[in-house]
Design goal:
Elements: H1 2-23, H2 31-42, H3 46-50, H4 53-57, H5 64-80, E1 83-84, E2 100-106, H6 113-122, E3 127-131, H7 135-142, E4 148-152, E5 155-159, E6 163-170, E7 179-188, E8 191-199, H8 204-208, H9 217-240, E9 245-250, H10 258-264, E10 268-269, H11 270-274, E11 277-278, E12 282-283, E13 288-289, E14 292-297, E15 299-306, E16 317-323
Parallel strand pairs: 2-3, 8-9
Antiparallel strand pairs: 1-11, 2-16, 3-5, 4-5, 6-7, 7-8, 9-14, 10-14, 12-13, 15-16
């Protein structure tokens, strides 16, 4: 009887966890809820699957409604693993399609330029958008006459189409350095495109205290404010554009978080709508996460995937776009 009672209690706890995972994108992004959101989003998600294993050993002692709770919990936790499946259902014909191919990559932590240039050549990429990149390195990889290039505050771009650098937004309001966004107008084969190269604030300082068993609430409040501010500024810019819009880069947030959904929920995320399987863009030694994104309005995503590493700590995203299908 004690085992049955413990199993039921554990089942209810896991079911509650499943509901929390499912509702995270609508939860307020401050205080304890923000801590749970960041903690669950950036933790090893596969550990949550392990939490279900003991319950399946108790399958025979559960009633039918309890088994339904267990299966519902499994669904929520599997969904939280961020497996892309909609790409398998994509049915957009590529025949005679006018396509623009975009690669985005955070080149930090030792990204290899030669490998990046080889990937760009092999995949015949039209636009390359980079974060944590220096202008001198950009010229080494994309100094040829066919490339239009620009690099400001470690936000760089190389394009086969003419580009015009427009506005940038700095981190000065909270004492940071550099810019978190650089915008462009690009004359592509699909027409004029408004593109934003972004690198949002990292939540890393919030997690550093956890190594010592301390929750740094001040760091949590700061990163929440910074990411909300950055997302709001970017959303305001995007809403003003008359041409198709593309937001590309390291947002340092996942699609499960409230800030992402509040500001970018009406964009098409290339990997979400056209990816297949797991497409984590950043890996640690024991888990992965998708914090780099390509978001679009006014274009149709045909295909999107992660390609081979360039020796940094982020993986490149390559996506194909065509004009919007009405």
């Amino acid at each position: 009887m004690a085992l049955r009672a413990m199993a039921k209690l554990y089942l209810f706890c896991v079911f509650g966890l499943g509901l929390l995972l499912l509702s995270m994108r609508w939860l307020p992004d401050h205080g304890v809820l923000a801590f749970l959101s960041y903690g669950l989003s950036f933790s090893p998600r596969w550990l949550l699957l392990l939490a279900l294993v003991p319950l399946f050993f108790c399958w025979t002692i559960f009633k039918n409604w309890q088994r339904l709770l267990l299966l519902s919990s499994l669904f929520c936790i599997v969904l939280f693993q961020d497996v892309q499946w909609r790409g398998y259902l994509t049915n957009v014909s590529r025949v005679d399609a006018n396509i623009t191919r975009v690669l985005s990559i955070n080149m930090g932590a030792g990204g290899d330029l030669k490998k990046l240039a080889q990937i760009v050549s092999n995949y015949q990429v039209d636009i390359v958008v980079m974060q944590e990149m220096q202008g001198q390195r950009l010229e080494l990889a994309f100094g040829g006459a066919q490339w239009y290039t620009d690099c400001k505050s470690h936000l760089c771009i190389a394009s086969l189409f003419p580009i015009e650098a427009l506005e940038s937004e700095t981190r000065k309001s909270w004492g940071g350095w550099g810019s978190f966004v650089q915008t462009y107008q690009i004359e592509t084969n699909l027409g004029q495109l408004a593109l934003a190269n972004v690198h949002f604030e990292t939540p890393r300082p919030m997690f550093e205290g956890l190594r010592y068993g301390v929750v740094d609430w001040q760091a949590l409040q700061m990163v929440t404010y910074q990411q909300d501010f950055q997302a709001n500024r970017l959303k305001t810019w995007a809403d003003k554009q008359q041409s198709p819009v593309m937001i590309v880069g390291d947002l340092n947030m996942t699609v499960n978080q409230a800030t992402y959904n509040n500001f970018f929920g009406d964009f098409s995320n290339a990997l979400s709508v056209a990816g297949k399987g797991l497409n984590y863009t950043k890996y640690t030694s024991w888990h992965g996460i998708r914090i780099d994104h390509q978001l679009v309005k006014g274009l149709t995503v045909i295909e999107a995937s992660i390609v081979e590493a360039v020796d940094g700590d982020h993986l490149p995203i390559i996506s194909d776009y065509m004009g919007e299908i009405n």
